[in-house]
Amino acid sequence: MSADVVALLRAELGERVDTRPASLEAARADKSGHAATGLPLAIVNAASVADVQAALRIASATRTPVVPRGAGTGLAGGANTGGGEISLSVRAMDRVIEVRPDDLLAVVEPGILNADLNALLEPHGVWWAPDPASRAISTVGGNIATGAGGLLCAKYGVVRDAVLGVDLVLADGRLLHLGHRSVKGVTGLDLTSLVIGSEGTLGVVVGATLKLRRLVEGERVTLTALFEGVRAAAVASAAVTASGVQPAIMELMDATSLAAVHRLLSLPAPPVGAAQLTIQTDGPVAADEARVIADVLTAAGGHVSVAADAVEGEALLAVRRAMHPAMETLGTTLIEDVSVPRSALPDMFDEIARIEREFGLVIPAVAHAGDGNLHPNFVFDGPDVPAVVWDAAEELFRAALALGGTLTGEHGIGVLKRRWLADELGDDQWQLQRDIARVFDPLGILNPGKVFAP
Amino acid sequence: MSADVVALLRAELGERVDTRPASLEAARADKSGHAATGLPLAIVNAASVADVQAALRIASATRTPVVPRGAGTGLAGGANTGGGEISLSVRAMDRVIEVRPDDLLAVVEPGILNADLNALLEPHGVWWAPDPASRAISTVGGNIATGAGGLLCAKYGVVRDAVLGVDLVLADGRLLHLGHRSVKGVTGLDLTSLVIGSEGTLGVVVGATLKLRRLVEGERVTLTALFEGVRAAAVASAAVTASGVQPAIMELMDATSLAAVHRLLSLPAPPVGAAQLTIQTDGPVAADEARVIADVLTAAGGHVSVAADAVEGEALLAVRRAMHPAMETLGTTLIEDVSVPRSALPDMFDEIARIEREFGLVIPAVAHAGDGNLHPNFVFDGPDVPAVVWDAAEELFRAALALGGTLTGEHGIGVLKRRWLADELGDDQWQLQRDIARVFDPLGILNPGKVFAP
């Protein structure tokens, strides 16, 4: 049966079908550290919409599960492909079909990398705002599938705010054009938004009409503020938000994170216990805004340093950007992704401190403080997440929900958080969402076991 | 049977059930000019979520159609209630439950008027950006149900951009809490977005968590530019968009509209054939932006007048705001709502001129030129839309679709555009959307005959 499926795929798609052991092995995993059980049947490297349709028609006819995949940089296991499954990669579909600076839109294939797209857009004076930390290595299609966020979201929005339309191939191979090219449009149900963040459970995104912004004019001003501890830094970030000045970037690093990055980058060790805010303003009044923010931070007990120029500003941000490599020096990492209302950020850091004490763990944490999205890092030895880490993570999720927050701000549910999905949605909404997915995919062959798995 | 339903409603909801003839007559219609056939069974004036749940449980048990209603200001007939149906009004649920300026959110009941909400928010230094022209008389719940837009959308977004979560009562009376309170959140499918613009087909919105903005600081600068004709004005508006300066408001009035408003307001008649752009900039660099825009407009052949102060600026905008009353002086009006990519605005006005010639009609048109949303007004005598007007409207829809546009930018499908819905969506997507609605409402009792009616 499996051999039949591969034979059918090869007959239709020829060299687009890859069954080399190393390729199959790679398709089992993403950047979450988790890998699927068993080896995929095959990888289909689709080069066109027709390739995607052909693969899905064969999958439907043979009831074979299909896992859509971009660059495999997800952090929740959503693209991991296991035994008996087809990995359907759209990474090779990476063309930019159309750029319209006058209409502030671009039509693209899903496999283009976020950073590559923005490099192509820049000469047109426009950009696509979603900026996940992975933007150099993650695809636009993957950003759409996960509903990605990033550092600039509080000011410039998330993926949901930046997509006008999506072309979607259903499980049975039919192609739908969802959404519109106009700024406004309310014709029927908003299926474009439904697909954003659906993690491959509704169909395969084979094209997107993206909403662009004009490049931001004026200077960027970057500053850092050191605080005695993480709670003081979190309170200060809430004070910045409450001041009404909107930074482009406001990142918080706790003491363990900051110390680990300084070690990695061979910078002088920060004061013991010190946490740091890194803030950037942009636009025509960036300098004025930075001055207001510096005053707020100083009043909140921070030691403020303002970058002299753009180069020094980039160096300050590089500290934050080195977080993931710094964590990798400490061990295997499970990166969590809870999000809370901005005012609850100090309380959420208190909860992390409590969970560290109760479970005897160190949980280095950074936060997109401008939007209340935290990434606590559970660090451990060996490839598998120990039970105590999952127990602590569960406590983290409960704490976030109790503070009016959510399980995942920007990484998605995938396999790693599926067992807590109903805790947040409630059983009725969980079942409703699953039933909606079934309308798109009656046979249940699209990314089974992800998001809605019982 | 009908008597039984009303008796059941009265037994449960008492004085909340209104069957007075004048009330029933009013519930047949909205502001579209269209009215449903027959009289509703009853109006339920829900005062609480429990009232909505009770009414829907009775409706489900008796298979009675329910039409959710806010203030009845819709322009597509979506809230019109006819024979054998219950009109379920949430207008009396108008409390603001919570305002959090620090988290930039508010939790509200659906029946509050948009303008009343913003009056309550202003002392907190925040506002809810969606600003349909009806904002003084339309409810937040209705704005959500239609996915409303307005004048400020190109700069400040539409309803879809301004809602974090929705509380929804399903057809069977169950209450779901959709969405989240945090800036980011990708837990499961984005059902909040699916409900926005669903026109009462998925459930009854009984609460909403709204995303707020801080009040815009700085001055507002208002200017107008007169052009020889509507095409020149449309080309100039596209030039403004292409210049990269983002006005808060950019409204276009064609010659017939402008002349009618000047007559209504007893202003001097504009030059024959002249069309007008009315533009407002705001924020810290409003004056600089207005200067750039004035230069663009002058270069495009416009005669520019800049308001000396805010009072004069409001007077200039009042001309645009008097459009609807001015049309009412001409006859009965069918207000259309097509939306096209901004660069296609001049071509769309050419199409309107062609349709005027071919069908022997005068079609006064205004446009939210900043976002490509046009409101051509078909004016006729008597209460019913003549066949020639529908034929011309159909030609208008086809032209908008051919230019990459959409049937409805902000008013919705309701009853008036349902027969063209599949033309835009395609048959496959139309059926998929209908099947999704059935997941929420298996008995098909929610607003039957609207949006998806065959």
UniProtKB/TrEMBL annotation, chains A, B:
**Cofactors that this protein relies on:** FAD
UniProt keyword Transferase present: no
Does the keyword NAD feature in the UniProt annotation?
no
Domain FAD-binding PCMH-type, residue spans:
36-215
Q: Keywords in alphabetical order, please.
A: FAD, Flavoprotein, Oxidoreductase
What molecular functions are annotated in GO for this chain? Answer: FAD binding; oxidoreductase activity
InterPro entries from the entry? FAD-bd_oxidored_4_C, FAD-bd_PCMH, FAD-bd_PCMH-like_sf, FAD-bd_PCMH_sub2, FAD-linked_Oxase-like_C, FAD-linked_OxidoTrans_Type4, Oxid_FAD_bind_N, Vanillyl_alc_oxidase_C-sub2
Protein name per the record: Glycolate oxidase
Which organism encodes this protein? Microbacterium enclense
